[in-house]
Amino acid sequence: MTKSRKLAGLIALGILAVSNVWAADMGTVAAAENTVKETIRLNDSYVRPGYVEVEKLRDTKQIIVITKKDMEEKGYKSISDVLKDQPSINVGATGWGQVDIRGQGSDQATRNIQVLVDGAPVTTMVNHPLPNNYDYVPVEQIEKIEIIPGGGSVIYGSGAAGGIINITTNLRSLQKPQSSVNTEWNSDGYRASVNFGTRAGDKMAVQAGFARLDRDLFFVDTYRKSNYAYGGFRYDADKDHSIAFRYSHLDEDSKFLQNVSRWKIDKYGHNYRPDKASDYLNGDRLLNTYNMSYNQNFGRKLKYSGDFFYTDGYYTNTKFFDGKMKTKSYGSRMRLDWAYGKQDSLLLGLDLFEQESHLKYKTTAKGKLMDFNYDKTTEALYLLNKMKRGRFTYTQGLRREKLIWKFDKDGGTATRPIGGVDSSNRWNTAGELSVGYNYSDLGKVFLRYERGYTSPDGLQICDEVYSDRSKKVYAATSAQEERYNLWEMGLRDKWGISTVSLTLFASETNNELERPYFKGAYGWEYKTYNMYNTKRRGVETSFFQRLGKLHLQEGYTYLHGRRDYTAQGRSLMASHGANEIDFTNSGLKAVPQHKVLLSADYKFDKQWSVNAKYTFFGKYNNFIKESDRHEDGNVVHSYGLLDLSFKFQQNKDMAWYGGVSNVLGKDYYEYDSAGGATATLVPGSERTYFVGMNYKF
Questions:
Q1: Residue 658 sits in a domain of what CATH number?
Q2: Against a cut of 0.85, is the pTM above it?
Q3: Which helix (H) or strand (E) holds 169?
Q4: Which tens digits make up the pLDDT trace of 247-257?
């Protein structure tokens, strides 16, 4: 099927959805929506997920849902700040802006994650040589963030080994439009936003807004400035038909320093300024998104929902000349939910989407222009069956997916150019089995097994090899998808005054990908191989207590990984005369073994409340080989951060908040490349003061 036919099909589906809504409106009378009685919640921070497919996992999987209220009260400045507060997530440790869930570690974190905004995938297809982050949406415009730690291949396909981050804007809450003004000043800059919502009759809701961020970064003359505008509507023809549409535009201008040595930071600190102005890096970014959500009930037992999306934009974030990564994605995620029997249901899902990247850059001012084009098509069908038998809940899931990778690359040097056009069709299957048992009114345990996969990324899909003695080309790799097995055992309950959530997990990837540089018959080549066997183990816990006006929360995560060679990996090392790496058994690179989060909220009265939060980040390896353990800078030491904040609810419409982040002024680094005084560092935020206001009208 050609791209034009696929796109035409998606447009036709969208038109059909709109037609159904208007047809339902003409033939029926709007009825009041049925209220849904929520079940007892074990944790006040837990709310129901916003997507039916995520809701299906709720009984046999720990799902973290961070609400708009949570984000407002804690003064988060970005999505990265929100994610840092989750015990099982590290941001920045494996590289600039990278998000690591459940200890994937260096080189794997960017591949073993799926990030979606309103159902649209925004995960970077290739992270080299231009790094990126996922701060695409201002926190003021986010309704909730759903996090699935570890797994999710049946629903989301390739790249779910670490987990899923689903960012939901106000697209799904447009039936309740809100008008508000938000502003915040902090010692690094300011942010402000305005939102306007209204109803146009009983069935139409309209919402629009604008947000501005102006923030100084660590070094002299470094900054991040962004403008974000959006608009949308929701139309409810009746209780069984609804459609919502949202458009957003992000335009960001930034300047930063990425490769700064330890000795320079130690000597100059904030005042470090590179010798050449050209050493400053620009981080410009633009993103347009179009999202439509359509829902229809076919009677009481059959429900359809579809998310249709189109995104395009670019980002730079590079030290290279003329470097720019253009991106585009479009497609749909459609679900049909059938309730059968007394408490059973079957979810049938269809994913059809296209992702494109176009990279241009130069390594030197007079160097050859690199021109790389990547295209990935996903066509997948999945089902997730859920059955309840007494106190037991069983789920079974299966996904069959076809990935079509295409690339057109022109690189090399002026004297030795390298080019190639190729494609790779890949069929994959994922499955899961789980069982949950309610041993009491609130207590639940579950066991879960998942078999998933991660496809090669844009860099790994291309081998750089000699086609003959004199010509080097890019060709599709013959390496296979990474396959992983994930086992989980979890518990949710109320013990005395405390609610508790506990998960033990173990995963194994028995054919992890690597793209080494080996000498072939005619010269040096880059080829992708299934070289490693990697095992990960972990414990995730969280506790919550409500003691009158005092609310306490504790979270702890333990992560440990170990890597060794596959048979192919050992054979490759031997055949190329290379020494095997003496992999350490003390943990994977850039994965803190311990992370602790302690939080206390005290509400003096209906207006005043205060919060204290302490986060401990454990030490971690900055080495791969055990023999490198004792070299200077090869272990990053632990550190702790203390944050204080307050909230004053002046009346039902106006609230003030403020606080101090990193109260003790702790010096720490989000990223450390290792190597002692010559290490490349990304300094963490110093002590920051902030105060803000939220007014609803």
A1: 2.40.170.20
A2: yes
A3: strand 163-169
A4: 999 999 999 88
